[in-house]
## 1
Amino acid sequence: MKLVMAIISDEDSNPVISELGQTGFGVTRLCSTGGFLRAGNTTIMVGTDEEKVSEVIELIRSKCKTRKKAMPNLEMSGGMGVMGAAFPLEVTVGGATVFVLDVEHFEKL
Ligand code: 2BA
């Protein structure tokens, strides 16, 4: 058994979770925060058999879009918050950051 953990944009989370659920996968959704942008994102956990991992990843891929996000460029501002806000940095986020972990033991009690 494997655990797929995927960090996705909040905007993509409903389509991804709906599709996984309709396809028969169990999903847990966690509210998370990216360390770089300090903005909210969504982490989903899907426990599944090893042979279904690629199906989960393809399903996530099909629903997650890359998008641009702006962050205040505090270094360029020299501490002047207003100036920094005028020159935001743009970073490309997503579609998804995916980790696949081995599950040592799984049971439902
Ligand atoms: P954040 O840490 O908020 O990062 C958002 C986006 O900012 C990243 O998108 C990347 O494009 C950019 N970025 C991150 N660190 C950077 C840096 N040191 N310099 C320049 N740009 C940087 P993604 O790579 O798509 O990551 C989206 C979110 O996935 C991340 O949000 C974080 O929550 C998670 N993530 C990404 N890589 C991870 C990893 N190795 N371990 C754990 N979580 C990770």
## 2
Amino acid sequence: MIGAGAAGLYALHRVRGLGLLAKVFEKGDGVGGTWYWNRYPGARCDVESWDYCYTFSEELEQEWEWTERFPAQPELERYFNYVADRFDLRRDIEFNTRINQARYDDEQNRWLISTSSGETVSTRFLISAAGCLSEVNTPHFEGVDTFAGQQIHTARWPKGGLDVTGMRVGVIGTGSTGTQVIPQLAKQADQLFVFQRTAQFAIPARNRPLDDDTLEELKHNYHERWELKRSSSTGMGRRPTEASSALEVDEATRNRAFEDSWARGGPGFARAFSDVMTNPESNQIASEFVREKIREKVDDPDVADTLVGIDHPLGARRLIVEIDYFETYNRPNVTLVDAAADPITEITPQGLRTTEGSYDLDLIVYATGFDGMTGALLAMDIQGVGGLALRDKWADGAGAYLGLVASGFPNLFMITGPGSPAVYSNVIFSIEQHVEWIADCLAHMLENGLDRIDSDPEAEAEWTRGVHDIAHASIIGKTDSWWTGSNIEGKPKGVTFYLGGTNIYREICDEIASNGYEGFVFQPAGKPESV
Ligand code: NAP
């Protein structure tokens, strides 16, 4: 297995349960994946703690006590460490070890893996739990090596923290990460310059500590929440609401609904009405509501204009959940630079230059995101049947049958791979579904003497077409963002995750498994021909 984040830990637990020997290679020196690497100040999950956790063990659910609605990075890292200890996982994890190459040997039907520690390992099955947001994206500005100060990507924040007291700090990027780190750095830095290229919608988190009554209710309702997660299209344990179209109600009713949703906070804002994501007119009304709310928070109208100059519909990029973000621009030590009108041109020894100005800095923080969905997989040299490189297979766009197995790469399972709901869902719940499907598939193979699984290229192509068709019809597919791969130069553009709903996706996966794994091709042990 590749990676000891949420996916790798659970995969290890389940694969061990099949009686197979298993080993996880993890490039960091601890578990937690995203929550190991993203330790920048303000790092916090924007899915509620009671949803962003494993459900596979009722004991675990009953033992663990979340302290906040939206858990912060240290608490999440503690959680994954607790899980690693609770299920005795560490003994099969090799830390500080990156997988450089994985090569499928057709004759032996084995994956040959080369690691950064110089080891070569041979395995029948390889499971990627490398993560959808683990390959960092750092733009290549001219002069980047000449900078005399310190430069850091938010996903590489030092373990011991970074004291920015008295520093002149530049932050590039105002996505979910930038929005979290900026208010924290502003409290310490002498001066903070924020370079915003694309203004984005953000909804207040309304984070809060969880009191005893809430915790008791959460533990009591464990089963009901699990059912809700399974039936929901995003894997969240919320009770469905009877929302109508935003256009069916009068203005006063509509405003009340938006006000209520705003007051509740969190990523569910768009659910105030059923058609915010599908009807441009409803979306426009919701967008204006949020713009107005942002304006109210910002003292300087010019700064507010730059913050609400949003060029895409609400929800077309991942909705940001913020704490004190917009108010931060009212601080005297914070300057917003409109990097769309005045782009960054180069890094200099003293700081950073834009077309119209220059900024002297001691620290440059890159909150510039990730090469999402495929970045971590393609960072390794993965070669399938006949030496076909995964990079070449995906040169014009990534896809795998159900997001699980890419044809020509037998016995390589991808957890939350391209073609699955992955990042458009409560990802930890999607991870569990994938791990359980893979474990069942492995059990099926063991029971039936099958030792090779591949996907049928036609089934894969049809699935991938379906994924694209749904995406093209949605506002997400029409908007540039990391969701469409447009943040990475040279990357084929397009949504690679399934937007049809996690509940529907699960049904399809289960149906395919119960139909004898339709669309997959198995080979029995010792026989060269496919059956
Ligand atoms: P992101 O959404 O891709 O944002 C990257 C930011 O960097 C954008 O503002 C982007 O501007 C800017 N940028 C990139 N290259 C630039 C350049 N050359 N010049 C100027 N600006 C540049 O990345 P992220 O904020 O790390 O978030 C990625 C995802 O991680 C989120 O959508 C979410 O799924 C996850 N995440 C979740 C949480 C949470 O749970 N709260 C927190 C952090 C991240 P443009 O928009 O113009 O490209």
